[in-house]
Amino acid sequence: MARSNKPIVWGPFAAGGTLTAFLSPALILLTLLAALGHAPDLFAYDRLHALAGHWLARLALAGVVFLSLWSAAHRLRITCYDLGVRADTLVASVVYVVALAGTGGAVLYLARI
Amino acid sequence: MAEQVGRRPHVRPITSEWIFRHPRYLRYMVREFSCLFIGAWTLMLVCALGRLSEGPEAWGRFLEGLKSPWVVAFHVLALAFAAYHSFTWFQLTPKALPVQVGEKFLPDDVIAGAHFGAWAVLSLAILFFAGAF
């Protein structure tokens, strides 16, 4: 059987799609409220800092960032192809690198909290 | 030599105008464009974690920075795209996760409905936990 790296790319995409479907509208609404000047109580520095200091919350945040960025990256790659951009290797490299760099940044920041 | 004339291979033109050929294609593309907003919002989340790690002042500056009309406009668009993505994703769940009970399959509405219900409960739980109301 021919080997394929598709499941490795596609697995996190499907997981991220499901996770963002469940979480992103509510999370975006939270930052929208903050942008409108009605920041939710959780956005107080002490509360959020304490929450992000817990290992479980750190793990969850890193997981959300990775899966969300990866699924967005994969979808952007497919969309570029759909729109007629045939430089797939280049597009794939750029979007996946951005997703991994963003995840790396999140892990680094979380470790400093 | 005549063969060369008749053997001009057809080169399929690569275009993006197909999107507008049918409303269904356009809806598909709108769904796919949600990735730009969800991706950008997630990168903003990474920045937020960075400011949070730098201390209360940096965090306060981040919250102040959110209060620009551009950021509000981005959030309104992002919320609409994210909600549309969630809606279409859960609508597809009966196709992706058919549940067989005995000889029959659970009706599509039950599977999609369970996902919509879970989405609503989870969203309310997040808003409540964050103290949004």
Task: Note down, in words, how this protein is organized.
The complex is a heterodimer of chains A (113) and B (133). With 113 residues, chain A is an all-alpha fold. Chain A is elongated, with a radius of gyration of 17 Å. Chain A has helices at residues 6-35, 45-53, 55-82, 88-112. Chain A is built from four helices and no strands. Chain A has a single domain, classed as Fumarate reductase/succinate dehydrogenase, transmembrane subunit (3 helical TM bundles of succinate and fumarate reductases, Up-down Bundle), CATH 1.20.1300. The model of chain A has no long low-confidence stretch (mean pLDDT 95). Chain B folds into two domains: 18-80, Fumarate reductase/succinate dehydrogenase, transmembrane subunit (3 helical TM bundles of succinate and fumarate reductases); 92-133. In chain B, strands 1-2 form a two-stranded antiparallel sheet. Chain B is mainly alpha-helical and 133 residues long. The model of chain B has no long low-confidence stretch (mean pLDDT 93). In chain B, helix 2 packs antiparallel against helix 3 (56-66). Chain B has helices spanning 2-6, 23-54, 56-66, 69-91, 93-96, 108-129; strands at residues 100-101, 104-105. Helix content of chain B is 73%, strand content 3%. The chains are: A mainly alpha (113), B mainly alpha (133). At the A-B interface, helix 1, helix 2, helix 3 and helix 4 of A face helix 2, helix 3, helix 4 and helix 6 of B.
SSE inventory with pairings:
The complex is a heterodimer of chains A (113) and B (133).
Chain A lengths: L5 H30 L9 H9 L1 H28 L5 H25 L1
Helix pairs in contact in A: 1-3, 3-4
Chain B lengths: L1 H5 L16 H32 L1 H11 L2 H23 L1 H4 L3 E2 L2 E2 L2 H22 L4
Antiparallel strand pairs in B: 1-2
